[in-house]
TrEMBL record:
Transmembrane segments: none annotated. It comes from the Bacteria. This is Restriction endonuclease subunit S. GO terms for biological process: DNA restriction-modification system. PANTHER family: TYPE I RESTRICTION ENZYME MJAVIII SPECIFICITY SUBUNIT, TYPE-1 RESTRICTION ENZYME ECOKI SPECIFICITY PROTEIN. Pfam families: Methylase_S (PF01420). It comes from Salmonella enterica. InterPro entries: Restrct_endonuc_typeI_TRD, Restrct_endonuc_typeI_TRD_sf, Type-I_RS_S_subunit. GO terms for molecular function: DNA binding; endonuclease activity. Residues 3-181, 207-365 form the Type I restriction modification DNA specificity domain.
Length: 386
């Protein structure tokens, strides 16, 4: 259903599509700014200063591949279908060239404002359509012809402007929160560098520090009794299934047996990658390559975990690391009271970081929900004439 005062059209009627420049190897590295796929990811709005690469071009190439204010850039290919045709709107008048893995959409009409484009191509309807149109077995890709088939709802220019202004408010809040989060993470790293090396100490502690092997500080346990049997995860289930890698929480299971809750908190350690996570809640494990590490008597596991994050260790091939290598690495460690005080300071920093991450997630979810309402006309903005 088309909202009153809006129209439905296909992108092929609204944009002229063109693939980017495939330059010779020696052309790269200097010259004009050159937009590639990575410039599009994470940049709904793209300006010249955000573009990393450069390319030297001839006059004919400059004429053919120069961007104009309001051009929309889509990535043609990605590792997953969910990431094809991600869009960034070029809102700059500086000279820039777009690359061969990028499709440029140049407006044919004045029906869509550039500011609105920055949000329109984030909409759920657009994303669902391009994912469905994607092709490829090894890598997902999409071409100009398929992109041109996608239909969109187009409000009046006046309503577009109001929608863009509303959503820009959320973008500003998200941007501010991201900066606060990055600053808090940077501050924590600086504090870690001071406290975990003994460069800065609390005045009440005078005892010398020792250098002790991790294996003398931590005991390890195999995850076998706690491995999840089914990967039929659901966010409504209670028990998290963990990995020590970047994803951390893979999902939630309703399995009631084999839940680790014996001696918390613990460190979970990937025996192959040496990634680790601090865990202070009951969980199940996904991989048998995980080690569950617990503190020996007189040891703060939080302190040891933070010290482990500062170890300069290079992985040597595809092998298990804890028993033969990692447990033999040494960290500087004070007496238990000083360990606990340092751990407390770092836990306070963690709490601030966690709060900012939660705020960021809330803002992003609010923006997503608001976009779905505004870009479909389910929620209308009040116009001046009203």
């Amino acid at each position: 259903m088309v909202p009153d005062g809006w129209k439905k059209d296909i992108l092929g009627n609204l944009f002229e599509f063109k693939n980017g420049l495939n330059a010779e190897k020696e052309q790269y590295g200097s010259g004009y700014k050159f937009v590639n796929v990575m410039d599009i990811f994470g940049n709904d709005i793209l300006v010249e200063s955000k573009i990393i690469g450069r390319v030297q071009v001839k006059d004919k190439q400059l004429d053919d591949y120069q961007l104009k204010y309001g051009d929309v850039l889509f990535n043609r290919t990605s590792e997953t279908f969910e990431e094809i045709a991600m869009a960034a709107v070029y809102l700059d008048k500086a000279v820039a060239i777009f690359g061969g893995f990028v499709i440029r959409g140049r407006p044919k009409t004045n029906d869509i404002s550039p500011d609105f484009s920055a949000f329109m191509f984030q909409g759920l309807s657009f994303r669902k359509q391009v994912i469905k149109l994607g092709q490829g077995a090894v890598r997902a890709n999409i071409g100009q012809k398929d992109l041109a088939k996608v239909d969109i709802l187009v409000p009046s220019i006046e309503e577009q402007s109001k929608i863009a202004n509303i959503l820009s408010t959320w973008d500003k809040a998200i941007s501010t929160t991201k900066k606060l989060l990055a600053n808090s993470q940077k501050q924590k790293k600086a504090v870690m560098q001071q406290l975990l090396t003994g460069k800065k100490r609390f005045s009440e502690f005078k005892e010398d520090w020792k250098h002790v092997e991790l294996g003398s500080l931590l005991e390890y346990k195999q995850p076998t009794p706690y491995l999840v049997k089914s990967t039929d995860y659901n966010d409504d289930y209670e028990t998290p299934v963990l990995t020590a890698g970047k994803t951390f929480v893979l999902g939630y299971t309703n399995e009631s047996e084999g839940i680790y809750k014996d001696k918390l908190p613990v460190i979970i350690f990937d025996d192959f990658t040496t990634d680790s996570k601090f865990v202070d809640f009951p969980f199940k494990a996904k991989s048998s390559a995980m080690k569950i590490l617990t503190a020996r008597d007189g040891v703060s596991i939080k302190y040891v975990f933070e010290a482990m994050q500062m170890l300069d260790f290079t992985i040597g091939g595809h092998q298990r690391h804890w028993i033969s290598i990692f447990s033999n690495l040494k960290i500087a460690i004070p007496e238990i009271a000083e360990q606990q005080k340092i751990a407390s300071v770092l836990s306070t920093a963690d709490s601030e970081i966690k709060t900012l991450k939660q705020q960021l997630n809330r803002l992003e979810q609010e923006k997503k929900a608001l976009m779905q309402q505004l870009l479909t006309g389910k929620r209308r903005v009040r116009m001046e004439a009203e």
